[in-house]
Amino acid sequence: MAEADPNTPIDGSAEIVRAAAETGARMHHCHVNSTSRRHIDRVLTTLAEARSAGSKVTVEAYPYGAGSSGVGAFFLAPERLSAWGLQPSDIVLLPSGERVADVNRLREIRTTEPGTLCIVDFLDEQDAADEALLWSSMIYPDAIVASDATPLLWPGGATDSRLWPLRPERIHIPGRPERLRRRSGEWFAKQVPGPGPRSSGAARSCLLVCSILLRQHGTRDI
Questions:
Q1: Strand (E) positions, the chain?
Q2: What is the mean pLDDT of the segment spanning 136-163?
Q3: Mean pLDDT of all residues in 191-213
Q4: Sheet containing 144-145: order of strands
Q5: Which of 47, 81, 189, 212 is the most buried (most CB within 10 A)?
Q6: What is the C-alpha end-to-end distance of the chain, expressed in Å?
């Protein structure tokens, strides 16, 4: 993203738009909010202009203000955090739940255990402005509300056996399915209070997600 690195040859969202216009191919912008952070409005405007010109561009967004990566990722280097408006305390290590205290601790864990999974809070869901940015990506025309694949974390450090069926009481999944279900349900309640013209395509997609999750998990936390 140009805002994070002014020396980048071409902004990622601009590259998607250009490829779609020049080739006629369909382009899909994954994780549009977690990759755009507080520049979501600018990115969505770029994509909307391309769509208006006839390009086939779609997006996918998380229903929460956090992403996940390995703590050794390039963009989490202490000297890179400010480019994304982040600070060490925005990083939570998994599975311990430790919130990184300072730059020294971040450097330590990146040196000793760079593959440690972590959650990165890129938006503050308690802040009204950040919450508005989050919803703007979810209600973007034809947006897909989704999550990505986070490995299962087993108590005691055991690895995933991949045997089916899994035993739910032995699994700790760090937040994502629970938050996906809860946030999708909240969004559906806000956007579709009942039958009528507000039942947009995105809302119908959300209904499908909710119905699947209800069948899998029941009504708890929805």
A1: 27-29, 57-61, 66-70, 91-93, 117-121, 144-145
A2: 72
A3: 46
A4: 27-29, 57-61, 144-145
A5: 47
A6: 35
Tens-digit pLDDT profile for residues 99-119? 999 999 999 999 999 999 898
pTM: 0.66
State residue 198 phi and psi, 5-degree precision: -80, -5
Whether residue 66 contacts residue 117, with contact meaning beta carbons closer than 8 Å, is answered with no
CA atoms of 113 and 107, how far apart (whole Å): 10
Check: CB of residue 147 under 8 Å from CB of residue 62.
yes
Place of tokens 């972590």: 118
Side-by-side strand order, sheet with 66-70: 66-70, 117-121, 91-93
Q: Which residue's structure tokens are 């699994």?
A: 171
- 57-61/27-29 β-pairing: parallel
* Cα-based torsion angle of the residue sequence 31, 37, 38, 44 in order, rounded to the nearest 10 degrees: -20
Question: What backbone torsions phi and psi does residue 133 show, to the nearest 5 degrees?
Answer: -65, -40
